[in-house]
């Protein structure tokens, strides 16, 4: 009886240790998750496949089919990244839809990384998209590991690197604040004309 009791206690102790390890592992996975992604593609099957692929990486995955809902959705919710298909017009495969919506997104949300989802035939157009601010592109059919890596890299790079425009904007705000809103003094501090400072402020508000 004593031998049985010792074995039982040993088994319970081992089980408790395994449970603790599993709990910590689950917690680590949860902490490593990225927050949210917005997927825009008019193919519902693509939504399902991406949901399955990315559910262990992102806490929140939102998919929309109509690109006309993009700006409204971005105004209502915050996202870490956008995954944007390049074709939405039935019967066309030019990728111009994606370029148009990419430019619209970057105009309203210049710091939001956008990764383009494209067919093999549109790779050159996807490269063109990067000139308009896309962080990267992925081709269909995609490799799950590559897709996840590119999305993570786009988010990490966006957080790690401050653009020249961001640095300049912060510099201007500090100068104006130090000069208590006096644009003439702020312009003198920045070593630029008052008109140049005014133009930069106007650009920041666009």
Question: Can you walk through the features of this model?
Answer:
60% of the residues lie in helices and 15% in strands. The protein has helices at residues 2-32, 44-54, 70-76, 96-108, 123-131, 144-160, 164-178, 183-190, 194-205; strands spanning 34-40, 58-64, 81-85, 114-119, 136-140. It has a 5-stranded parallel β-sheet with strand order 2-1-3-4-5, with helices on both faces. It is elongated and about 60 Å long. The model is unreliable at 18-31 (pLDDT under 50).
What is the compact description of this entry?
By secondary structure, the chain is of the alpha/beta class. It is built from nine helices and five strands, in the order αβαβαβαβαβαααα.
Oligomer kind: single chain
Number of strands: 5
Instruction: Give the strand order of the largest sheet, numbering strands 1, 2, ... along the chain.
Output: 2-1-3-4-5
Main sheet?
Answer: 5 strands, parallel
- The secondary-structure class comes to alpha/beta
Residue share in helix: 55-70%
Distance between the termini: 80 Å
Average pLDDT rating: 81
- Rounded to an integer in angstroms, the radius of gyration calculated over CA atoms is 25 Å
Give the overall silhouette.
elongated
Q: Could you state the order of secondary-structure elements as H and E?
A: HEHEHEHEHEHHHH
Query: Which regions contain 5 or more consecutive residues with pLDDT less than 50?
Result: 18-31
Range of strand content: 5-15%
């Amino acid at each position: 009886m004593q031998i049985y009791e010792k074995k039982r206690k040993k088994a319970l102790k081992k089980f408790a240790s395994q449970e603790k390890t599993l709990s910590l592992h689950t917690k680590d996975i949860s902490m490593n998750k990225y927050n949210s992604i917005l997927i825009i593609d008019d193919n519902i099957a693509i939504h399902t496949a991406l949901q399955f692929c990315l559910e262990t990486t992102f806490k929140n995955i939102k998919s929309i089919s109509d690109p006309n809902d993009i700006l409204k959705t971005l105004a209502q919710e915050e996202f870490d990244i956008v995954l944007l298909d390049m074709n939405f017009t039935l019967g066309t495969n030019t990728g111009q839809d994606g370029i148009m919506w990419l430019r619209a997104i970057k105009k309203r949300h210049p710091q939001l990384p956008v990764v383009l989802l494209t067919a093999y035939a549109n790779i050159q157009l996807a490269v063109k998209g990067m000139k308009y601010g896309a962080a990267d592109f992925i081709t269909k059919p995609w490799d799950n590991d590559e897709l996840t890596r590119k999305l993570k890299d786009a988010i990490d790079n966006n957080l790690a690197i401050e653009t020249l425009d961001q640095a300049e904007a912060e510099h201007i705000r500090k100068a104006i604040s130090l000069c208590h809103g006096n644009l003439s003094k702020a312009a003198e501090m920045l070593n630029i004309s008052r008109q140049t400072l005014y133009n930069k402020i106007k650009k920041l508000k666009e």
